[in-house]
Amino acid sequence: MTYGYSTSVSRRRDLTARATKSTYLRRLDWTLLIAALSLSGLGALLVWSATKQRQLDANLDPESFLKKHLLNLAIGLLLGFVVSKFDYRLLRAYTPILYVGSILGLVAVLAVGATVNGAHAWIALPAGFTLQPSEFAKLAIILGMAMILSEKRDAEPEPKDRDVVLALLLAAIPAALIMLQPDLGTVMVIFTIVVGVLAVSGARSRWTLGLLLGTVLVAGLAIHFDVIRPYQVDRLTAFADPNSGSSSYGYNTQQSRIAIGSGGLTGQGLFKGAQTQGKFVPENQTDFVYSVAGEELGFVGSAAIILLLGVILWRGFVIASRASDLFGRLVATGIICWFAFQAFENIGMNLGIMPVTGVPLPFVSYGGSSMFAGWMAIGLLQNIHLRRSD
What we know:
The chain is mostly helical. Helix content is 70%, strand content 3%.
């Protein structure tokens, strides 16, 4: 009798676990997931094409970048799955720990980090891997600001001024540490996140206006005291004069525009782009990966990237609007602002209409930290979606 009872209990547990798994899969936002997966898969092909010939010329494994990229994608998917499983509302209690961890990571970069392309923004890991803490700082800032600005307001329609000040201070500390690297592109992304979260939180418009004016003042001081290096100022202003710096700071953008313009409607074909395979566009597996799409996949391929990004942003807006609480709505808003501005900036600098800041194209560019943080953000959106109020 005891054995039969134990077997019955075990079967019921198995059935419950299967039902829970089925409910989880059924309730996922599959449109969001498929769009992000498609974008990541397209990015893997572009990274492979951008690096294969270069590796062959150096007598190295031509698939090494592809293998690392796929490994980064697999880890990112795992992180996204884990984040989606835990109730996001429980993250409020752990947000201070995550925030402090991100600050320690940024401090570690300044102390023992590695310099790549003029930015002291990476921590070197074994097997040739690197970690960029500033990517995870974006998530910490989103969660921290959402936690502060969604606290109980005693029926007030807007957050209290002291809460807004605290939220701005919370974002300013990691932003200042990132500026010391210096990584102006990431600071610009953080600024966009802060403005978006503040606006949706219901904070008074004077805070947004003050933030904009304060940012202009800080930028001026940063240039005056050489916090922003002269070469960075040149890169920031080069897009206003496309023909300037053709052999120096404007070289990347000019070569990228040539590559994209030569792609035509359907492109020259994967692994067949003259600019890409000729290595005329530096860093075309990371910052300038969009130029590979424009040259080898043409307007059709590059437009597909924008379309998939648009689907992700659309689903993000839907999830934010249906969130069951203000905390979830602010988290989703921060992620939307992050993806939207970073994609616009990256594609814009490839086209020569935005300054070159070195930010990656979400889910497409080569880089583990960007991939991990991006998929963790997708996991958060799925988490909010799974617990939405219909």
